Amino acid sequence: MQRLVNREQDEEFIFALLNHARDIGFTSTNIDLIYGLPKQTPESFAFTLKRVTELNPDRLSVL
């Protein structure tokens, strides 16, 4: 799905990046999600949302 819109971001990398940011002192985190991507289903978006909430961001935007 991400490949279709040229926005590939590996889940493992995102988790590591956010955790590293916190480790070095970032006190506020934000994650933006895009809804309605090609081939996205309600189920796939629900899975993404579940994984993102595990990161416990301070803000979550759904565009």
TrEMBL record:
GO cellular-component term (any): cytoplasm
Cofactor section: [4Fe-4S] cluster
GO molecular function: 4 iron, 4 sulfur cluster binding; coproporphyrinogen dehydrogenase activity
GO biological process terms on file: protoporphyrinogen IX biosynthetic process
SUPFAM superfamilies assigned: Radical SAM enzymes
Alphabetical UniProt keywords: Oxidoreductase
InterPro entries per the UniProt record, alphabetical: Coproporphyrinogen-III_oxidase, rSAM_sf
Protein name: Oxygen-independent coproporphyrinogen III oxidase
